[in-house]
Design brief:
Elements (H helix, E strand, L loop, with lengths): L19 E7 L2 E2 L5 E12 L3 E12 L4 E10 L16 E4 L2 E2 L3 E4 L4 E10 L4 E11 L12 E7 L10 E9 L5 E5 L3 E4 L2 E9 L5 E5 L4 H8 L4 H10 L4 H12 L7 H9 L7 H20 L4
Helix pairs in contact: 3-5
């Protein structure tokens, strides 16, 4: 595994070693045709302790004459599977207008493949494509992988390969990592345990990314508890957690020593994404502290 062991010695009470990049996959992409447009996409991602559940509902419109196209979904094998692309062993449930689609696997290399399927569209036809799966979060150094999440990604840019921009894009990411250093793309809204995006005529040039604080995020998720992101949100809404745990996460985020500029430089390349700009990290860190202060104020214990 291509990971360097990272130990933080500034806070002995915080057990952090080798947080891992984790991916929930990518948007389906055309491989043989460029005349079909994605006029709408509703993407729902739910992070749990050991897996991410993904539901991508896409509206496709054929802007040319009748056509047969091949649609692909990237997957990976080997030690890096789950780090940038979903492991190929993960089953996909794909439907077109509610009817199941037969998938085949197209190998592109030793560790890179695509699940592919054919779609026939008549002149000006509109179809509804739905892709569902449950991607494992992988970090063999943690008994609960989510607590060792160093970076989380969903490859949104593969959606740029359809004709034109995405007409309406709606994304919901339910997560357990409110102590965040960076969020992508810009233009999101945050509340405790959830990030949402709403775009019109959107050409994706960035991936969905969250970069948790390497000492505070997993520890806070563990302290608040909940096996699913939905359960964690219920606890957050009810104030069912200790204020002291949230305050400790805030103090960790206010002290820059555990990560400085080096942590994003270490983890981002391993997840296959660019290193975030320093000003963006500073802005999201301040935003996270403010959100956590609101969470601390609602604590009932």
């Amino acid at each position: 595994m291509r990971l360097a062991l990272v130990a933080f010695v500034f806070f002995p009470a915080v057990a952090v070693a080798d947080p891992h990049p984790m991916s929930s996959g990518a948007a389906p992409e055309p491989t043989t045709d460029a005349q079909v447009a994605m006029t709408a996409e509703t993407l729902a991602i739910a992070l749990e302790l050991r897996a991410a559940t993904v539901n991508a509902a896409v509206t496709l419109v054929n802007q040319g004459p009748s056509t047969t196209l091949v649609v692909g979904f990237p997957c990976a094998t080997g030690d890096d599977a789950g780090q940038i692309d979903v492991p190929c062993k993960v089953p996909l449930a794909v439907t077109v207008d509610g009817k199941p689609v037969r998938l085949t696997r197209d190998k592109a290399g030793k560790q890179q493949s695509h699940w592919v399927w054919k779609m026939k569209l008549a002149d000006a036809e509109t179809v509804e494509l739905v892709v569902k799966y449950r991607a494992p979060l992988i970090n063999d150094r943690y008994s609960v992988p989510a607590y060792g999440m160093g970076l989380f990604t969903y490859r949104l840019t593969t959606g740029a390969r359809w004709a034109g921009p995405i007409g309406k894009l709606r994304i919901t990411l339910d997560h357990m990592q409110d102590a965040l250093l960076f969020v992508s793309p810009a233009g999101y809204r945050r509340e405790a345990g959830r990030i949402t995006w709403s775009f019109d005529d959107y050409e994706p040039t960035e991936e969905v990314i969250i970069l948790p604080h390497p000492g505070a995020a997993g520890r806070l998720a563990q302290a608040i508890g909940g096996k699913t992101a939905a359960e964690l949100r219920r606890r957050l809404d009810a104030g069912d957690y200790k204020k002291a745990d949230v305050v400790q996460a805030i103090e960790l985020m206010k002290d820059p020593r555990p990560w400085g500029e080096e942590w994003p430089k270490t983890i981002s390349p391993l997840g296959g994404v660019p290193v975030p700009p320093k000003d963006a990290i500073a802005a999201v860190t301040a935003e996270s502290i403010k959100l956590l202060e609101e969470v601390a104020a609602r604590a009932k214990r």
